[in-house]
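Table S5 (text form). Sequence records supplied for joint modeling of the two-component complex.
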Amino acid sequence: MMTGIECLLLIPFTLHYRLLDRTEKWAYYYLISSVIFAVGSSVLGIIYYNNLWFNSIMYLIQFIILSVYYSLLIKNTLVKKAIKILVLPAVFIFFLDFFKLEGMLAFNSIFATIKIFLVLCYGIIFFIQLLFDEELIKGSIFINSLPNFWFNSGLFIYLCCAFLNALTYNFYLSHAATKASRLIVLSLIFTSGIIEAILFYIGLMKAKKLRA
Amino acid sequence: MNIFEMVIIGTVGMLMLGIVVVILVIFQQKQVIQHKLALRDKDLELQRERLVAVLQGQEQERKRIAEDLHDEVGAQLSVLKLNLGQLSQHLKTGNGEAERLKETKEFTDTIIQHLRFISQSLHPQALDNLGLSHALDSFCSLMNKNKQVEIAFKTSGNGHLVDREKALNVYRVVQELMNNILKHAQATEVLITYHSTPSLLSIDVEDNGNGRLLDSLDQSRRKTGSLGLKNIESRLNIIGGSINFAKRTPTGTVAQIRVENYQPAIG
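The corresponding structure-token record, covering 479 residues in total, follows.
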């Protein structure tokens, strides 16, 4: 269901691609990567019964896309630099986790958790930037009129929900969790994914309103 | 509570936290902007009050000078004219003194007329006594005597009473417009149309000049720091009025002044 929603969301984004600015285009790229992630993992799951290596690679790609997105979005030069620099240790951790610590056939919980934690931090920094942005206050621009606010909100809500899952996924796999508890966690993540999709769509509408 | 239940509760908590953070951010920023807007409104109100005080002080000073000129200097010049008249009756010799005295008397007349014009421009007495429509009519007559431009005044509507402060500001705006038309528009004819309904006062100032009235107002502000247009806008802003400049066919400009709720408050 989630894959379907993401594919549907991709249609208006593609149609209005020209309305998106340089930063917002990276949110669109994130959306494309999410669709590839969803479709690819489903297909690989059916064919090979193990899609976890693909998930790990997609996590890395998404982290790089989001790092570019936030480095363009955040104005503070020090934070910008930090975001760019942090990509290197994150990639190092990914390779370490992928080849050494947890392996490519297991869920790379360490890298996934670090990735989500870092992106959540970027999201919070962006929220703080919006709250104290003098340009917005002087121009009496409400943040809910900014597309990037909605994109960031969507990402933030989804990643908040996915954080504990990323942290405990291997535990779930290794311990026989009840089907009900697994379903509850998954349904919560899907709910946050749907919220993310709705907020992304609102962001697109705001971009349309701003530039149409 | 086992670890799975803890994860479920934690995930729900994180989801709620995410939503709450987004909502809080929206409301917090809204509050900050609203607070800033309120401060800006207060600042604007303060500026407006200061401007009103400055303009009121200016008007009082103008009124005082106009009264001094009219009552003191005017009266003294009238006495001088009277004395010159009496002197001419006693003058017997015919060595050209009578002609010189006549010239002096005529010159005194011209000074008295100029004085009246200045006094009238400084503070229109007709505005206090007869109202805005008559004051503008009298202003046009006075301008016609002194300038080469032909100024006509047309009035319609049933003469609703105009609030004194608003009338004075509208009068000053028309005065400023006329000054600029005379200086820059190269017009030969000006028509002032006064129209009032119970809720709207409309005054149109039309000239048949080069159509560059608004440009000249804007340019003079940029070049010389003259506050013509700014004054007009400030005065109209104070009384809640507006001005619009439009091209007049075939040539010239139409300045349309509109003031809503212009009648004096009852009670």
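Note: Chain A has a mean pLDDT of 90.
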